[in-house]
């Protein structure tokens, strides 16, 4: 499958066909500074722009899903579970727990530190909650009496 030399392939075509792409730019280099170099460089910019879009899409697809507490799930003494992990915005935390035993409250840092539930805090109760991280600090506690004090709390910093 060889494209005729005088036909300029579309940037998308070049992106999808590395051999064609290589062949195309080789022919441009052979032409040197002469005719065709302007359209060649604009094609390179078009390919670069498309690559950026594709890589951005790949970045979104690569959001990571974390199970809080791993196999133990969302329970007491899970407070150190985030240590050593790298989180980023749009990553998802999965909280697995018995819905009659625990819950998940998303709150601010001060409320987190004092284990108090602020008015209007978002409370999750399904037992299998998927929460998407926002950039910056994300705080969660269980607000059943004594549970937060028992280390049922996590602070996650999302880059
Ligand atoms: Cu609890």
Key terms for this structure?
single chain; 159 residues; alpha+beta; 4-stranded antiparallel beta sheet; 3-stranded mixed beta sheet; 4 helices; 32% helix; disordered N terminus; binds copper (II) ion; disulfide bond; Plantacyanin; Phytocyanin-like; metal-binding
Indicate the topology:
Blueprint: H1 11-16, H2 18-31, H3 37-61, E1 65-67, E2 92-96, E3 104-107, H4 109-114, E4 122-124, E5 128-132, E6 136-141, E7 153-158
Parallel strand pairs: 1-2
Antiparallel strand pairs: 2-5, 3-4, 3-6, 6-7
Question: What does this protein structure show overall?
Answer:
The protein is α+β, with helices and mostly antiparallel strands. 32% of the residues lie in helices and 20% in strands. The chain binds copper (II) ion. Copper (II) ion binds at residues 102, 142, 144, 147, 152. Pfam families: Cu_bind_like. The chain crosses the membrane at residues 36-58. One of its GO terms (molecular function) is electron transfer activity. Residues 64-159 form the Phytocyanin domain.
Rounded mean pLDDT is: 81
Taken in chain order, the helices and strands follow as HHHEEEHEEEE
Shape type: elongated
Major sheet characteristics = 4 strands, antiparallel
What percentage of the residues does DSSP assign to strands (E)? 15-25%
Number of helices: 4
What is the helix fraction of residues, given as a range? 25-40%
Based on secondary structure, the structural category is alpha+beta
Any ligands, ions or cofactors bound here, and which?
Answer: copper (II) ion
Strand order in the largest sheet: 4-3-6-7
How many individual β-strands? Answer: 7
Q: Report the radius of gyration as a whole number of Å.
A: 26 Å
Q: Outline the low-pLDDT stretches.
A: 1-6, 11-16
- Give the distance, in angstroms, between the N- and C-terminal Cα atoms: 45 Å
Keywords: Copper, Disulfide bond, Membrane, Metal-binding, Transmembrane, Transmembrane helix
Pfam family, one: Cu_bind_like
InterPro entries: BlueCu_1_BS (IPR028871), Cupredoxin (IPR008972), Phytocyanin-like (IPR039391), Phytocyanin_dom (IPR003245), Plantacyanin (IPR041844)
Organism: Aristolochia fimbriata
């Amino acid at each position: 499958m060889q494209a005729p030399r005088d036909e300029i392939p579309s940037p998308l075509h070049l992106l999808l066909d590395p051999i064609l792409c290589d062949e195309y730019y080789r022919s441009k280099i052979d032409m040197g500074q002469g005719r065709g170099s302007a359209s060649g460089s604009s094609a390179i910019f078009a390919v670069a722009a498309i690559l950026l879009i594709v890589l951005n899409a790949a970045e979104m697809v690569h959001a990571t899903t974390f199970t809080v507490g791993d196999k133990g799930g969302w329970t007491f003494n899970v407070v150190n579970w985030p240590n050593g992990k790298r989180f980023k915005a749009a990553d998802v935390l999965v909280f697995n727990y018995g819905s009659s035993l625990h819950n998940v409250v998303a709150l601010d840092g001060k409320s987190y530190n004092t284990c108090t539930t602020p008015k209007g805090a978002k409370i999750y109760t399904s037992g299998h909650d998927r929460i998407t991280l926002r950039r910056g600090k994300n705080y969660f506690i269980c607000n059943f009496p004594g549970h937060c004090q028992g280390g049922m709390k996590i602070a996650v910093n999302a880059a």
